[in-house]
Amino acid sequence: MKFRRRFTQSGIFVFIIIFTISLFVSLGANTVQTLYENTAQFNQLISSKAIGFNVNQSEKISGDQLMDVIKSKKDICLIKDQIFYSIYTGKAIFFNYDMNMQVPIISGRFLNKNDFSENEPLIVIGKDMKDEIVVKNGEEFINYNNEMYKVVGVMGYSNRASILDNTFFIKLDSFLSKYKELQIINSSWLVDGRTNDTEALFDELNKDLNNKNKVTLSKLEVDRSQSSISNALSNRKFTIITIIVTILVIGLNIVNITYNYVANKRKEIGIKKSLGGTNFIIAIEIICEFEIISLIAFLLSQIVYFTIIRFGTLSQVFGSNVYFLSGVLTLVVVIIITFIISLIPIRRTLKIDISDAMKGR
Hints:
Keywords: Cell membrane, Membrane, Transmembrane, Transmembrane helix. The chain is 51% helix and 18% strand.
């Protein structure tokens, strides 16, 4: 009853602020983790050494001619980015070595190197594309660019959304066979390989295309992010500044709130001092009481956080998966900030004279 009275009279504002901070940190951590997971999933074919390029004089070379040069290379991966089917975005890919793909699959499988030794058009689709499937003779197809691509796998999660739901991957050789001139589709390409020297692979590819087809390649910057938010997060300077500003704002608020909260306990502190209580014991009692309020606020914020993520309609903003890491990070932040920042006003309050404290001044 005594604690409930203190909580109601002096700690309610502290509770509200800690609850808000906890919810903000949880949703923020969840959003960041979702963005990084989505980017990693969509860019699994792109390593840190991948090279982006454009094909110059692309009117001089057909899709089949490009594939002839590509297939002559060992341990190579080529990706045609930014291809579209209705509202869906995809990639046309080719690779001739084993790749350790960690793509979440609901049914079927992802493409493998053996698929590129055959002429059959194949596609892997996100689960939101299932309505576009055409069934023929018991097999599923997607009609892309007047070519029937056999569906070999459906990507995504059965119980939550992901960036892969609206994407697709098709065989690059099947895609390029429709184009007599690359100029029609020439935009961004990516080359990668099992070798650690992608620069040498790119130079060799550039040389062969120039010798055989009189075309050259020009490098482009590789864009590995999938949104303006994730692009900002990948900027280390932006991330550091954001973290510093956030910590300062949170710290200043908690210092002000905690000081007022502890100042209201001056009379109680004076009584405890007069009865022989040491500054250390009094400070520990105040910190523990503060931490209890913070812990209750944290637990309630996690219930709201879980409800928003699992049952809310903002999965495109915060993601649709509850991450254990978000809860742990929030708890650590709340405990550390509450402890460190509360030491400042507590130290000032404990310096007051006993007689002044007894009078509540």
